[in-house]
Design goal:
By secondary structure, the chain is of the alpha+beta class. The protein is 39% helix and 12% strand. Strands 3, 4, 7, 8, 9, 10, 11, 14, 15 and 16 form a ten-stranded mixed beta sheet that branches. The chain has a two-stranded antiparallel ribbon with strand order 1-2. A two-stranded antiparallel ribbon has the order 5-6. β1 and β2 form a beta hairpin.
């Protein structure tokens, strides 16, 4: 049996403020009882029922004794996330429990708005925070149980008498009825958000050890029996991207191709005319540029469940034919669909300075940068002819899939060609770009680098990564500026790749 008694024993006999009839442990057990009696609870799957029971036990775990505690939901959710690891939950269940616990006081948050404008903003904020899966339905169920567990009967939930009750259409409502009124508006906002959820499929990059298993020959120059795959003296697995022909041989999904579908200049893809011919494919990923080793530490912080940071990302398959990344080296990341918030052909000028609250304020529901939220969903809808409801179902069926697995199959090439148009604008210096926004990265799948002077063929990627001087063309490219030689600017990534079992991908011809 899992021993959680040290965390829960402290709640026994711990009094709450005067509104409550029960101490914290009694209240928590009462919440559990009320949830279990809800007919909607019985319709949840086993995983969600488990989450609801754990949330009822742990939601007030940090609540201060004898007084109103406005911070306990936020602080308690973080504690709950780590306490719950004793139960062997999946990562998805851990995040769901954390989110439900953090927002279990959503009703007070919206009910204390001072104006209709503030109320609207708060309802939209709750919708954004609880938009995924059935989280808001669970949060609403939890709220009703929490209200019913304040008093020995349901009076706190049911009465329309007392401070804090609000009037709707001239009728003063109980907290329980008010929750349902607010809930309908929140659900409407959730539906709007689902219509614009970006779908940017990510190809899973195999680990270095998995790729190494396919290597049977390593030559003196580091080349192997697999064209485009190299192994250096330290065991670093290097992929020269544009040289690989047999992607399946190194563990990429069946059907993966780097080039082979031609999107032609002058044709509209996703209601947008492509500026030049592009050979494209279905290996897609997110990159984030890095200059220094200490920048790697932020991925430990950004992957924490309570991170509010948004990372700026490029969505790409390779830089040669379409655009340069924001940095000549960095990491290739994996994200769940729900943690891609938006983005487009804008240069927001911030690698990691944005946050989710800023996104809620400015990028959704008519915010001045809402085009960045709508960019990808509109691109896919226009290319495929889907309406909003069809798009929502399409997202549900295809979230977290690589492009090679998108269904229905007949749409894959259409979407691949539409994605080829993402990079058709140019930023300062005639460099094409895109910028997407993501949070809670799942994994660093690989590290990458490319040649500063991308018109120059660098040859063997092992020699390229060990280059200690600048080439003549690199000096000409940068004029008076002095970039670091490849070996200096990529050494920290090389170490990271070896320590974390990921390949080093080198782009360029």
């Amino acid at each position: 049996m899992v021993d959680v008694l040290p965390e829960l024993r402290a709640q026994i006999g711990k009094s709450q403020h005067s509104t409550h009839d029960f101490d914290i442990m009694q209240h928590s057990l009462k919440v559990m009882q009320k949830i279990s009696q809800d007919t909607k609870f019985k319709k949840l799957d086993e995983s969600d029922q488990k989450i609801m029971m754990l949330a009822s036990l742990l939601h007030d775990i940090t609540k201060r004794e004898g007084r109103i505690d406005k911070t306990h939901a936020t602080e308690g959710s973080f504690d709950t996330f780590f306490i719950a690891k004793k139960f062997g939950l999946t990562r998805e269940e851990e995040i769901k429990l954390y989110t439900l616990t953090k927002h279990h006081e959503w009703l007070e948050f919206v009910n204390t708005a001072k104006s209709e404008e503030e109320l609207t903003k708060r309802l939209q904020s709750v919708a954004y925070d609880l938009q995924n899966n059935n989280l808001f339905d669970m949060a609403l169920m939890f709220t009703h149980a929490d209200l019913r567990a304040v008093k020995a009967n349901d009076v706190f939930h049911d009465t329309n008498v007392g401070a804090g009750r609000k009037s709707f259409d001239g009728k003063v409502m109980s907290y329980g009825d008010a929750a349902d009124v607010y809930a309908q508006r929140i659900k409407d906002y959730v539906q709007e958000l689902q219509k614009s959820q970006p779908l940017l499929p990510v190809t899973k990059i195999p680990t270095a050890s998995k790729i190494a298993k396919a290597i049977t020959v390593v030559r003196a120059d580091g080349s192997t029996n697999i064209k485009g795959v190299y192994k250096d003296k330290d065991g670093l697995i290097i992929i020269k991207y544009n040289e690989v022909e047999d992607w399946e041989a190194i563990g990429f999904p069946k059907g993966s191709i780097s080039k082979g579908i031609e999107a032609q200049k002058g044709v509209n893809y996703g209601d947008k005319e492509l500026a030049e011919d592009v050979n494209t494919g279905n290996i897609k990923f997110f990159v984030h540029g890095l200059d220094y080793e200490n920048q790697l530490a932020k991925f430990d912080a950004f992957s924490l469940v309570d991170s509010d940071a948004l990372l700026s990302l490029s969505y790409a398959e390779r830089p040669e034919s379409k655009y340069r990344f924001f940095r000549t080296q960095g990491v290739i990341l994996d994200f769940d669909t729900k943690y891609i918030h938006g983005g487009g052909e804008t240069d927001a000028g911030s690698g990691c300075g944005k946050n989710i609250q800023e996104f809620k304020d400015n990028y959704i529901f008519g915010g001045y940068r809402e085009d960045d939220r709508l960019y990808i969903s509109n691109l896919i809808k226009n290319a495929t002819g889907m309406n909003d409801s069809q798009y929502v179902e399409f997202i549900k069926a295809n979230e977290n899939k690589p492009l090679s697995a998108i269904e229905p199959e007949k749409l894959r090439e259409t979407i691949i060609k539409a994605f080829a148009s993402i990079n058709s604008n140019t930023r300062k210096g005639k460099r094409n770009y895109n910028e997407m926004y993501g949070s809670n990265p799942k994994d660093v799948m690989a590290v990458f680098a490319y040649n500063i002077n991308y018109t120059e063929n660098f040859g063997n990627p092992v020699e390229f990564l060990n280059r200690t001087t600048l080439s003549h063309n690199e000096r000409l490219s940068f004029g008076t500026a002095t970039p670091k030689p490849v070996s200096e600017r990529t050494e920290f990534l090389r170490r990271y790749a070896l320590e974390h079992n990921v390949p080093f991908i080198v782009f360029g011809d």
